[in-house]
Input
Amino acid sequence: MRLIDRITLSAPETTMFDNPELSQQTVLITGAANGLGRALAKAFDSVGSTLALTDIDEQALRKTADGLKKATAYVGDLSEIVATRRIAERIRADHPRVHTLIHNAGFLVPQPFGDMTDERWNATFNVGIQAAYVLTKVFWADWLNTGATAIYVSSRSGIEGFVDETAYCATKHAIEGFVKCLSMEATDKGIFVHSITPGMYMHTPMSEKNYPAELKSKWVDPIELTPAFLYLAMHKDSALSGQRLNAWDLSQKLKSGQ
Output
């Protein structure tokens, strides 16, 4: 039996900290200008959350934020550690508490290993795992006092290997290890951490560039995956902390009310 089949759709677990309704939460979403990040921003906006959105694409990010009720855009390059820390500290200063972090930012440029440059390797790693570290670290001391949920977007590349994806796969594998270790330190302190794979081909700017026609015929709007994220932000389930979840499967389960 898969983990997804053992999830009980019930009331949030009682923890040592309060567990606000989504309408009372502040949610930080990276990579929020387009694709899954933009869909997540819309989904959390629909339930009344306050949003801190970050992306390197200023025009698209501001367009996303301007269309939402309680959203602030924080433009910056997560491949730069100083810029990432500055963004996180600005968000921390602007919001008394960040209840949920969703680290969705990442990029894939398929490239044979022999053609890989130091710059491309570092940028892929920095956006994928270094930014996950920096964002988590900035809020960590607060979370130890308040509790939180942190969700890190992974993919099949986090458990498999693919041709021309050495940097991307290594980054996603790192996310999986990061989540496992954090959960061992943090779950009993009220910090619930998850990795989550889309579980379905999504129509995003990145997939438009990288998907062959066969996969493009199967892709779905990323909004279809967002119920899983809303559920994890609301339900503090220690059995799921540290686990790799499938957004498509969980979202379908939630929609069917199983």
